Amino acid sequence: MKHVLFGGDGFVGRHLAQKLVADGLSVLVADIVKSDLPHYAQCEFLHTDVTDPAAVNAVPIAADDMVYNLSAKMLSPIMPRAKRHDFFYPVNYHGTKHIMSAMGDAGATKLVHFTTDMIYGHTVVYPMTEDHPVSPLGEYGQSKLDTEHLAAEWRERGMNITLFRPRLIIGPGRLGILEKLFKLIDANLPVPMIGSGRNPYQFISVFDCAEAARLAWKAGVPNEAYNLGSLNPPPVRKLLGDLVKHAGSKSLLIPTPGWAVKRALDFLDLINIPLMDPEQYLIADEMCVLDVGKGERDLGWVPQYRDEDMLIAAYSEYRAKRAGHAAPAGSYAQPAE
User: Fold this and answer.
1) 178-186 and 307-323 helices cross at what angle (nearest 10)?
2) Which residues sit opposite 128 in a β-bridge?
3) What's residue 326's pLDDT?
4) How are the residues of the chain apportioned to helix, strand and coil, as percentages rounded to the nearest 5?
5) What is the C-alpha separation between 210 and 66, in angstroms, rounded?
6) If phi over 0 gives left and psi between -120 and 50 gives alpha, with beta otherwise, what is residue 276?
7) CA separation for the pair 291, 226 (Å, rounded)
8) What is the model's pLDDT at position 331?
9) Which residues of the chain have pLDDT under 70?
10) pLDDT score recorded for residue 76
11) 136 CB-near residues (< 8 Å, 6+ apart)
12) pTM
């Protein structure tokens, strides 16, 4: 029996692969790229493009293998609306379809698959449980929701599929949209907030995501969906204020009328020069917080990292990168990524 990680060289995958290798398990990473990672000395690697069904079928999946789908196209870089479908669907939807089909052919029945909280759309009930209504606001969320429909079909055929719906995942090696924020703070420029900044903002650590996937396997791969997010997320104003203070910046946090900012961003999106993805800004001033209690009850999973620490650690990584050297020693081992 081995652990097969599609997208195992990616952001979450590399941390999960490292965990599994450290546990002495047999690991096969199937990805389109191979980074220079120490744990590759203890696991197999197979170059695999999930958009190519022949490549996926070439992965030696056995009936008793544990499979993880961590391959994805994310919201960063920001794509013009005219290109979004063709950007997200080949990997997010068709790649998932190819993986599930290959598993079906091999008789493999255990899959952990990551989707996104973006399937929920606007906040209807706060906090959001896994039963929250789904209504994606864009192609990214829709591509992920469509994979959940695929999962439902394969569950009916006897497959066990655990679905994870994470908030914005941050950790070493990924800055994404945060880089724009950090540049404003470094330049002592005003930092506009969409709305008053009184609503909470919730991240999830890449390390907590990897541990959730491991615990799903340990729990026998429940046929359930689980939210992944931090505990007790602070208001946007406090989150950003703590970062500005930590950075020694003179930046001021500027509240804005959320509806007006959203309309302006809608117009820029309409003419294909987006500053943010609609799936990000349309919910930026909402009480968009995931309830993560189900993961604790079923899997014994409890997030270990605080939003404030994660954001400051991401900023430290950004500063280190700009200075041309590695992030401060030990910064990724602490409860701050």
Assistant:
1) 70
2) 290
3) 58
4) 40, 15, 45
5) 15
6) beta
7) 9
8) 41
9) 325-337
10) 80
11) 118, 119, 120, 121, 142, 144, 145, 279
12) 0.93
The pLDDT value recorded for residue 330 is 37
> Cα separation of 202 and 290, whole Å?
8
The residue behind tokens 């794509």 is: 79
- Cα–Cα distance for residue pair 208/12, rounded to 1 Å: 9
What's the one-letter identity of residue 145?
A: L
> Which tokens sit at 211?
């541990």
Nearest to 84 by CA among 137, 31, 13, 162: 137
Are 212 and 162 contacting, i.e. CB atoms less than 8 angstroms apart?
Answer: no
- Amino acid found at 225: A
Strand order in the sheet with 110-114: 44-47, 27-31, 3-6, 66-69, 110-114, 160-166, 225-228
- 100: number of Cβ within 10 Å: 24
User: In the prediction, which pLDDT does 166 show?
Assistant: 98
- What residues contact residue 329 under an 8 Å CB cut-off, 6+ apart? none
* Backbone angles phi and psi of 148, in degrees to 5: -70, -35
